[in-house]
Each structure stands twice: as C-alpha cells, then as structure tokens.
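User: I'm writing a tutorial on reading structure tokens. Could you give me a worked example: one chain, its sequence, then its tokens, then a sentence or two explaining what the tokens reveal?
Assistant: Sure. Here is the example chain.
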Amino acid sequence: MIANFYKKSFLFFLIILSSCDRKKDFSSVAMSIFECQFKQNCNGPSSFAMVGDSWTDFAFGYTIVEDLYDQLTNHYQLKITAMNLAGLTLKFELEQRRGFLNVIKDAGPELEFFLLSIGGNDLIFPVSSFSTQGVDTTIRIRTAEIKNRLKELVFYGNQYKINLYGGKPIKWIIHGYDYPNPDFDDSCVLDAIFAGMSREEAMTILERAVEQLNRVYQELSYEIPYFYYIDLRKTLGGPPFSNSNFMFDCIHPNSLGFDLLAKRYISQLKIIQNL
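And here are its predicted structure tokens:
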C-alpha cells in the first residue's frame, strides 16, 4: 500500500513539476529519478551514500526548494550516491524498499560515509495518535521503534558492504531535525486537533517529539561503533518554533533555511571526517 502511494505521488509530482521550473530539462530529471528510485540504478561510485526523506528530496529531485541534498551537492560539491524519497519512513526503508543496500552497492568500494536523513515521518505520523494514545506514550513507542530499526539498518548495511568490498565498517552519520513551526502552518497538527486534542496542547507536540528524537540519535552515537550524530536544533531560531522566515511549511525549511542547516551540517561533517 505504501509503495503504491509513493508511485502515485511520484507520477503526480512529475506532472505538476513539469510546469514549475524550467531551469532543468524535465525529461532528463524524470528519467534520472525513475532510474534511481524504481530501477535502483543510482549515481556512483563515491565515498558518500545517502538515504533520506523530504529534507533531502523535497520534490522528487526537482528543485522547488534547495533541500539538504541540493545544498550539499550543489554548494559544497559532495558527490553522493543517493536514494532519497519524499515521505520515506525508516520502517518502509528497512522492511520493504531497502534502498540503503542499493546505494552501498552503487557507491562501490570507496564508500566511507553513509548520510542518513530519516526518522521524522516515523515519529510524527499519524499525528492523530498523539491525541488518541497520548503524547508521551506515542513518543516513547515511536522513538523506541526508530532506535531498534536504526540499529538493524546499520548492522545489515555494514555486513553488506563488507561482504561486497571488504575493509572497515561504514561511518554512519545521522542528523536530527530542527524545530517545526505549527504556528506558521498548522497543517501538521490538525489531525491531532480533529481527534480531540486542544489547539494549545497540539502546538507543543512537535517540539517535544523533536527533542526526544534528537536524544535517541545522540544515544545511538554512544552505542553503535562508527555512528555519528549531527545536532541541527536552534539553527533556524527555535525553540519552540523555527523562525517562519526560514520555513516553507510546518515541517520543511525553505531554501534559506536549508542553506543555514547545510552550513552547520558541513562544519560537523568535517569534524567527523577528520576523526
């Protein structure tokens, strides 16, 4: 069901985006997205691999907003073998899509760093559960699931890389998310409100969830060898909310916001590269 949703969304975006930005040749963009996302033929070889959600694939590879992947590749010249997909969850990536294995294969034996931008959708959706099951309970259950799945993904990824190419395990790098802004755009909390939660409480959900997710990522950096965490909180003016001048909608930064996030990301990445 999830896979069908992604494919339908992909086709919808291809139709809509063809009229949004004429800076790129649409047919070549569409073909490169299709090759990578559905035929698992991604760009390689490289020392960097990436799997991410809409923070790294805002619009199926098309530049409406210069997301984190765009910033790293266009402005910092990182060559990244990637399979990013808007809406991607860690659960779907690990249990069904398994794009992380494809990019390991395509990146080749020089692969050293795997950049992860994932977990936010697992944490937030469905939003209605924060009302029906309770905020603390929902956050606790979801972050525990995220933690276990990340451990599993790293284990399988390292085994796959070593079996293919030998050498050392991959250095895994995951970033936390900065604060959303439901005050700027409340679409991300409306389902909780419709399920019976007061607007005042709903406006606090995402800050609490983001704080806990960042704590989990930091814990994993102590528990998993060669696993590193980049803290991006307070880059965009929060807490409790990121500055609306840096936001495209409730949970996605705009190009200026991603530019600020990329600067901080790169500064931390350079430290990790020198370890």
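What the tokens reveal: The longest helix spans residues 135-165. The radius of gyration is 18 Å.
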